[in-house]
Design a protein that fits this description.
Pfam families: ROK. The chain has 399 residues and is an alpha/beta fold. It is built from 14 helices and 17 strands. Helices cover 43% and strands 22% of the residues.
Length: 399
């Protein structure tokens, strides 16, 4: 072969392409086990379009890593031929840690490979000083892991509201916490000794829905998170849009027509000021419904028949529905997921929200799939998304 051809053979471009292809193939194989397991290797090959030999090779590597195992139950294809020994996720060895920092408290959790919460606790903020919050979160994770001696952590996912830069692992700005340029990945990694992955909670929950929820298989998904913080995330073709320095989804200061709530930015009627759970609780206190700051107490009062609590929750859900309608007009997603306390826990609130969206699009809107574990799932799904995108990187050396 001519010497001039050698640079083509040693060029790094094909190796990079091959690496990306292997990573993508590994991802679709493990995702198939997640979605269909226990599942025969031949079925995975049919679902993914990969060769049976490739599927067998990936499954062998996943088994070595402890991510999957052969099922004890033999299966026949339509009752004929040799029985298949299917594979399934191995839930006996690995978990991921999850940390979600909300305004009043931090949730720490352990999730299995199917995104199910196996342990969790809440740590109330004495002060929101970042180093203290992260240190207590690390201590909380250590306590959960100590109580689960048969489990090893593959890594830690961290989620919160505000402006979170995934690539640098930094909370750039969280005004309600008073955080600015907090190097979460560095601090939490040093405290736990584990790989730490960081993202905003709206994007984290899109990934959770994509992997484990009702939005699985949707080609495009919009998620609106309305808690103390109000933000959004948008995913197309299995990719969540982050934008430069992960600033996409910052909708807190979108103007609400007719809004009356003053915002910390100096304007009146910003989306977050109108929809925040702080606003809901303040209005409930003013009406004599509750005397605290926990929005679930408003839900409890409504469940007990308090008509004012019912009205406050329905009105809030309607306002959320108007915001969803505006975002639908701009983005036109196939599926909309809403994390909003009324729609999550009351059918009348979900109906009110969908009514504001409009009859022609109401069926596309559903509440979050994890109403009883939203914050725990948000944290853990950051790490699980990384696992399912690049499962071959989950080596014992990284544990």
């Amino acid at each position: 072969m001519p010497r001039t051809a050698a640079p083509l053979l040693t060029s790094p471009v094909p190796r990079v392409a091959d690496s990306d292809r292997r990573r993508t193939s590994a991802s679709v194989v493990l995702r198939s086990v997640l979605e269909h397991g226990p599942v025969a290797r031949s079925t995975i090959a049919r679902l993914t379009g990969l060769s049976p030999a490739s599927v067998t090779d990936y499954c062998a590597r996943f088994a070595e890593l402890g991510l999957i195992r052969e099922s004890a139950v033999l299966r026949r294809s339509k009752g004929v031929g040799r029985p298949h020994l299917p594979v399934d996720l191995d839930g006996s060895r690995f978990v991921v840690g999850g940390v979600h920092v909300a305004v009043p408290y931090t949730t720490v959790a352990l999730l299995d490979l199917r995104g199910r919460v196996v342990a969790r606790s809440e740590v109330k903020h004495e002060r929101a000083e970042p180093a203290r919050v992260l240190a207590r979160a690390a201590d909380g994770l250590a306590a959960l892991l100590a109580a689960a001696p048969g489990s090893s952590a593959l890594g830690v996912g961290f989620a919160t509201g505000g402006w979170v830069d995934r690539d640098s692992g930094t909370v750039v700005e969280h005004p309600l916490l008073g955080w600015r340029e907090v190097p979460v990945r560095q601090v939490l990694g040093a405290r736990t000794g584990l790989p730490v992955h960081v993202d905003g909670h709206a994007r984290a929950l899109v990934n959770a829905e994509r992997l484990f929820g009702r939005a699985r298989g949707s080609r495009s998904v919009l998620h609106l998170f309305a808690g103390h913080v109000v933000d959004a995330a948008f995913a197309t073709q299995d990719e969540v849009h982050h934008g430069p320095r992960s600033q996409a989804g910052a909708i807190a200061h979108l103007p609400v027509p007719g809004g009356t709530e003053p915002c910390a930015c100096g304007r009146v009627g910003c989306l977050q000021a109108e929809l925040s759970e702080r606003t809901l609780c303040r209005r409930a206190r003013e009406a004599g419904v509750v005397d605290g700051v926990n929005p679930m107490h408003v839900v409890g009062a409504a469940a007990a028949g308090d008509p004012v609590a019912v009205r406050l929750l329905r009105e809030r859900s309607r306002r959320v529905g108007r915001a969803v309608g505006l975002l639908l007009d701009v983005l036109n997603p196939e599926r909309v997921v809403v994390t909003e306390i009324g729609a999550m826990h009351r059918e009348d609130c979900l109906v009110a929200l969908r009514d504001e969206v409009g009859a022609d699009r109401a069926a596309t809107v559903s509440p979050i799939s994890f109403p009883d574990s939203v914050l725990a799932v948000a944290g853990g799904s950051v790490a699980l998304d990384v696992l399912y995108r690049d499962p071959l990187a989950a080596s014992p050396e990284a544990i």
